């Protein structure tokens, strides 16, 4: 049952609002100030976090994924237009596996490439959903407004800018991301708030908050300061203790050194807490077996960085009860999706890498009884052009994405899947898709599942009032 928002929660949310650069996109600042006023009210609803552990995992595919080939129309009319536009980038019909087309117009049918078979199996089992044509939007716009340059996100087809928009819902340079702002609200539910927002591949704006500090894990667990760990270093067993004693100092000649010292001290403390918890998690090791893919090539999950990141996330999830955690936000990344060239050579392997890794992750969560507690969603800089450039595709906008987890209402395509042809109402040039669903709306669905109240979601998602609620992807 939701409790009243405390003064501390109010100040945290207000700080997040101040840091978010609101009013920048034409949304009335008064609307957001009204959100602060609502939080200040003793009747404002706080995040509900007493319904068991929950976590969201953002799998970010860096470079801009060409999702036109991940979900392909298979009915005669739409496949013909798809193949005519894609030319040499079209996936042949004999390499597509049919999928349930729930949520779409009668007569339309779709399939996934053979490389995505493990993900398709999760979809048909009801543990995976497709969000059609989602992208960065400040507010819903029409094709005419696009042509007039009205209401567009900043620097629409730029990698850096659109990565920032996906992760923060603000232009590049924003100090916080919507995952971190969720963490600001949810960290009070955790006995050890330091483990609220976790990255497995370096610093990410998605996880940056006003109060929460993202914690970085390596593929094998916490990044330890080895000379300070017990053992023999520099020929002496006394070195680790002496180094820890030196690092325990609270005095520092300048702010930079003081902040650095704080991070080092946090690393020492958390490593000693986290290492045994992860070791006792019970998560299976990655299989060291070559999987033969449809094109005859092989993939070994034990050697895949994406699978390794997902394994440490699974360990963290399994350790959550031991660590007193109720809510967590994760981000993992995989590169190789900037498909200007060699697309048909490289794309099948990327598909298999993602599908096999997610499938293993879901199995690992099932093995530790947490499959209903975690929701993974894919993200990327932007979609790509439907039109081929001769060897690949160029920067686009809207893209199709997956949401996977035991709590997901799967076996359904959410949103209107656009007609895969040129010159349509959703084609803003070369088959670039005008998004039908904003990232804000996807984030709103995830935030609702995580227990954030409407008032809190309005703080986390600064342009939420510009949109409808978005897809209802949870039961």
From TrEMBL:
Entry-linked Pfam families: DUF1501
UniProt superkingdom: Bacteria
Coiled-coil stretches: none
Protein's name in the database: DUF1501 domain-containing protein
